[in-house]
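User: what does the whole thing look like in 3D?
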Amino acid sequence: MTFINYAAREINCKIVYYGPGLCGKTTNLQWIYDKTNPQAKGKLISLATETDRTLFFDFLPLDLGTVRGFKTRFHLYTVPGQVFYDASRKLILKGVDGVVFVADSQEARMEANNESLQNLDKNLKEQGYELKTVPFVLQFNKRDLPTALPADEMYRQLNFKGEPTFEAVAMNGTGVFDTLKAVAKLVLTELKKK
Amino acid sequence: MATPDLVMYEEEYQQIKDTLQRLQVDSNSKIVFLVDKNGQQIAVHGDMRGVDATSLASLTAGNVAATDGLAKLIGEKEFSILFHEGERDNIHISLVAQRVILVVIFDDRSSLGLVRLRVKKASAELEKTFEVLLRKSEEERGSLSSRFDSPFAEITDEDIDSLFSE
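Assistant: Here's the predicted 3D structure for the full assembly of 360 residues, as structure tokens:
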């Protein structure tokens, strides 16, 4: 749910990073936070456990500048990836404008990727959205690992509707901004249609 | 879409700000803050120095969403009021018109009773404003030959690319 404030000439959009546990959602946000100008970002909030696993969400507000006289602000959220936090994941999807699915490239995690993608589909439906229509970008993370599956094999298994897909190594920033840019573009293009 | 987009217009924005200002004075509180259920800040009144407004908005919404989830689990429709008591400052959170969250931060110069009383009055005003606001944006969406031009209708790829030029 985009919030357009004509009085303050601001537009706010919500983007959610989804994916299985330990796939690198928080790492994506951390990289964006580290590499963004201080005046363009807010505080990175992490509601995490003592072992740094996301408990509820991470949150990063980003000011992207002005489009047609409107200040454009993106709110980036991650969900907790672990299966048993499903109730929290549903809450975070409320009012989402765009979704990034971060998949773990390791062969051993493909089942978790598939499960998480199905979970996303189901939870979006519960909120009244369709994965088919919601702005959606796919990221294959951890491409640097020796156990990574070939990208075309992952594409075959995970790509849902021909959505933009990026190979990434979130630890060193590879593909992180490309992914963000792609989803932001889809969200703004969606606004155009309304 | 599950919930229609929230669109804010000048007139209602001013009304909301006036209501918040009155509430802040009447309840003798420090900050009065209005957030939408998805964590977007709508308006604020009071001394925000040293307070990260964006984080406050997103955490409040997370808090309300989690409490809402708890309510459903035990078969309640919602918990319409949340109150957090601190050593110095307290936070009073309430739902308005089922879609926005009113946050009042106050210290010992006020009291929970006073805040609750004033919040009730302000909520009624805000509910009316949001009713008008929703109707207005419905109408805008409904009319095909809308006089109202979305600034995003003509957004170009260059506009979007320029956001990422740095």
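In plain terms: The longest strand of chain A covers residues 54-67. Strands of chain A lie at 3-5, 10-18, 45-48, 54-67, 70-78, 98-104, 136-141, 165-167.
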